[in-house]
Amino acid sequence: MEAFLKGVLLGLGVSVPIGPINVLIMSYALKSYTKALCLGLGAMSADAFFLLLSSFGVSKLINSPSVFKVLAVLGACFLLYMAWQIFKSAKSEINAKNANTEELGSHGAIYIKGLLLNLLNPYVIAFWLSVSTTTAKIGGSFGTVLFGLIIGIFSWISLFPLAIYKNRKFVSPKVAMWLAYASALILAGFALSLIYKTFFAT
Fold first, then answer.
1. Cα separation, 187 vs 176, whole angstroms
2. Over its length of 202 residues, how does the chain's per-residue pLDDT go in tens digits?
């Protein structure tokens, strides 16, 4: 039970900080709860995949500088693409009665977006492949800790967008537009930061 609870706390600890996924979840939740949830589920699937890889000892793959740099470029390009998509749709009217959710894409497509965002982020990969040492120190079976991690992550990706969606009526169209612009800018910032840290930071 202790290992499970510590896994839950670890899952919450890695889910709550602001990052590309949470920025996108917030943006999508203003229009559709289920689509915001699908985005989070896609990201969570990538998290679980990387953690499983770490348990099989394949973390050496990410140590290759060439692999790391390729993933950084792909991840940055995908983040810039997502930023552009949000920027283009920023002027769409967002309110409780006539939110246009079709422009977000299908639930399956949004799930794939969340999956790719984490699959193509080398820092997310490196983080999860190093978490195996943390789970080992927690004690208990790896399956119990992994289950706790999934519960912790799922709790956040389901409750966070729900809170935003339920309160979206308090967000005026003008505020929603500026939130979309801010989200696009933040995502672009993450993309540029990824490139800088990979190729220019000492």
1. 16
2. 777 887 888 788 778 877 889 999 998 998 899 999 999 999 999 988 887 777 666 555 566 788 788 888 988 999 999 899 888 887 764 444 445 566 678 999 999 999 999 888 887 777 776 666 555 555 557 678 778 888 999 999 999 999 999 998 888 888 888 888 999 999 999 999 989 988 987 5
What is the CB-side half-sphere exposure of residue 182 using CA atoms within 13 A? 9
Vertex 104 angle, CA 76 and 194, to 5°? 10
Query: How far is 130 from 155, CA to CA, in rounded Å?
Result: 23
How far, in whole angstroms, is CA 48 from its chain's centroid? 12
* pTM for this model (two decimals): 0.81
